[in-house]
Write a structure and sequence with these properties.
Layout (H helix, E strand, L loop, with lengths): L1 H16 L5 E5 L9 E9 L18 E7 L8 E2 L6 E2 L10 E16 L5 E4 L16 E2 L3 E5 L5 E5 L1 E2 L12 E7 L1 H7 L4 E7 L10 E2 L2 E5 L22 E2 L4 E2 L1 H17 L7 E6 L12 E2 L3 E2 H16 L9 E6 L1 H12 L7 E4 L22 E3 L4 E3 L1 E4 L5 E4 H12 L8 H9 L21 H11 L1 H16 L3 E6 L7 H12 L9 E5 L14 H4 L3 H4 L1 H11 L4 E2 L4 E3 L1
Parallel strand pairs: 1-10, 15-18, 15-21, 21-22, 22-27, 27-28
Antiparallel strand pairs: 1-4, 2-3, 2-6, 3-5, 6-7, 6-8, 6-9, 8-11, 12-13, 13-18, 14-30, 16-17, 19-20, 23-24, 25-26, 29-30
Protein name: Esterase
Organism: Cecembia lonarensis (strain CCUG 58316 / KCTC 22772 / LW9)
Length: 571
């Protein structure tokens, strides 16, 4: 018996030594009132170059994050953080190296949505910041504090900071800001839901009230204001910054100069007159809805096409017909530009899709969701290899696909709530699961692909497949309208889906698609079709670079009475 007692005591000591750090997180009294449900993040960063909440990324230098969900928070109660929860980049807290870290706790608040489909789900609500969890107004967090991490010491953190409300932009002579309640989206989400839009008006808009204009829809991520338009020269005292993405100094000054140059072009007497809009359609899942109808996101395609766009055309003298609407954008915006053209073929007269998100799911970045069994691993009889996720123009890999998804798993859990890329694709494309959340295309931890979900994706959102399936019905409506541009070294391998789509388009007959697909040699993500200029310049010129192609299309399709020089109709 004495031996058993001694052995049991040794076991208790050993177990106690492996329990890990005791992390206690308190909430300041004045921040407890509206805290109910959410996700609590514990973030450790290895240096103080930025706050830990801004240092989580796909790259190898990412901060460490561990996340847990909570419900029904009780005022005055501290969180005893569960260190056994899933983490990224280190999955297990025990593998975090000892050393000095800056630690921060952060709460992403959830709200309950009672949707029209009968499901009740808990999600973060966009507060007009563009569904950016680390900036969402009302989310609360602690100040970063330096700790010596040894896997054993206790850590006490107080959350006493709150993100402030967004300051909305003011109207100017050329730029107006509109926000409308969408009846379609409000019915779906069970609460008032709004769409916003930044409108760029042509010169002399108020002086020429008998002019009506074509509408250019510039799709992209959530813009805080109209991007790339500036009525004053670059700031003389601007401190030039370094852009690691483009490896150049002074990119902020280049952006200001390009925005000012666009203004000078916009007001010049020879420049065509038209309206440009950028849409704000953030939602509980992401900073953007992907502009299509979705079981999980709601009828954003119909809301934008049949509610928002007619409202803008009525308010700002748009022509108001499909032949006078054009779409363009890059990345997410590139996918949207093509998607709305395909799904609403008569409502738009041309799309210019740059570096689009996967438009053929046989190349869902580096995964074929129809034939591959696992998204994370390529398995052979004697060896298994991880699937790559991100590269540079030389092909050097900086992130694996598994790691990119594990980051989202730590940030948002298993309900597509991370607010990041793979979760929004899943939320847009998937059917609703029994729990009311998107059915996973693959197991977020193992990578095993759900073929039933893949089949649903194919029929509803694989743009190449949909065009090929329906070409006899929609081909004539899409003739001359499809233009796609992509770098052949796209960082996320998006060019592979473009290759497959081009194969189909070039084989079309009755009619031949009569559009354009171009590739940039060694060009990375966001290449948009200009072979002469570097990508860091051309990506700032979306509003001008497709004009010659749009002008040609307008000459072919516009009715009599349309001014081909100014692009206006007299009423």
């Amino acid at each position: 018996m004495r031996i058993l007692i001694i052995l049991f005591s040794i076991l208790l000591i050993a177990c106690k030594g492996n329990e890990g750090p005791n992390v206690s997180i308190s909430i300041a009294t004045d921040l407890q009132a509206d805290l109910h449900d959410g996700r609590l993040l514990l973030i450790l960063h290895h240096n103080d170059d930025r706050e830990p909440r801004f240092a989580i990324s796909d790259e190898v230098g990412s901060a460490q994050v561990i996340g847990i969900d909570f419900e029904n928070y009780q005022n005055g109660k501290d969180f005893d953080f569960n260190m056994e929860a899933f983490g990224y980049p280190k999955e297990n807290w025990k593998d975090i190296p000892q050393g000095d870290y800056w630690v921060q706790a952060y709460v992403i608040k959830y709200e309950t949505f009672d949707r029209a489909d009968g499901h009740s789900i808990k999600m973060p609500m966009d507060q007009w910041e563009g569904r950016q969890w680390n900036r969402t107004p009302g989310n609360i967090f602690s100040r970063p504090q330096k700790v010596k991490w040894d896997g054993k010491n206790s850590i006490n953190i107080q959350i006493d900071q709150i993100n402030p409300p967004v300051k909305e932009p003011e109207d100017t002579e050329f730029i107006k800001h509109i926000k409308i309640k969408s009846d379609l989206l409000s019915e779906f989400w069970g609460r008032d839901m709004f769409l916003g839009v930044h409108v760029l008006l042509p010169r002399d808009f108020e002086q020429n009230k008998d002019e009506y204009y074509p509408l250019m829809i510039y799709h992209g991520h959530f813009p805080s204001d109209f991007e790339g338009f500036r009525t004053i020269p670059p700031d003389e005292k601007l401190e030039e910054d370094y852009s690691p993405r483009f490896n150049i100094y002074g990119y902020n000054k280049i952006q200001q100069q390009e925005a000012y140059d666009f203004y000078l072009t916009w007001i010049s007497p020879d420049f065509p007159k038209f309206i440009v809009i950028q849409i704000q359609h953030a939602n509980p899942f992401y900073d953007d809805s992907y502009a299509v109808n979705s079981e999980n996101i709601g009828p954003y395609g119909d809301a934008i096409t049949y509610e928002l766009i007619p409202h803008i055309e009525k308010e700002f003298r748009g022509i108001g017909e499909g032949w006078a609407r054009f779409t363009y954008g890059g990345s997410t915006g590139g996918w949207e530009a093509l998607a709305v053209q395909v799904k609403y073929p008569e409502e738009y007269n041309g799309c210019f899709a740059a570096c689009p998100d996967p438009i053929d799911f046989r190349a869902y970045t580096t995964v074929n969701i129809y034939e591959d069994d696992n998204a994370y691993y390529i398995k052979g009889p004697f060896r298994t290899t991880e699937r790559v996720g991100k590269r540079n123009y030389l092909g050097h890999v900086s992130a694996m696909l598994k790691d990119m998804n594990y980051k989202e798993l730590a940030l948002g859990g298993t309900k597509s709530r991370s607010g990041d890329q793979w979760d929004i694709w899943q939320a847009v494309y998937s059917p609703v699961g029994d729990d009311g959340y998107p059915m996973p295309i693959w197991d977020k931890y193992t990578g095993e692909i759900n073929k039933e979900v893949a089949a649903y994706w194919k029929e509803n959102y694989d743009l190449r497949y949909i065009m090929e399936r329906d070409w006899t019905k929609v081909g004539k409506s899409l003739e001359g309208k499809i233009h796609i541009y992509c770098g052949d070294m796209d960082n996320y391998y998006l060019n592979n889906a473009v290759y497959l789509t081009e194969d189909f388009l070039e084989g079309t007959t009755d009619p031949y698609y009569r559009g354009e697909v171009l590739y940039g040699d060694r060009a990375e993500h966001c290449w948009n079709g200009d072979p002469e200029l570097p990508n860091y310049i051309s990506r700032l010129r979306y509003n001008t670079m497709y004009l010659d192609k749009i002008a040609k299309r307008l000459k072919e399709t516009s009715p009599a009475g349309f001014d081909q020089r100014l692009w206006v109709m007299k009423r």
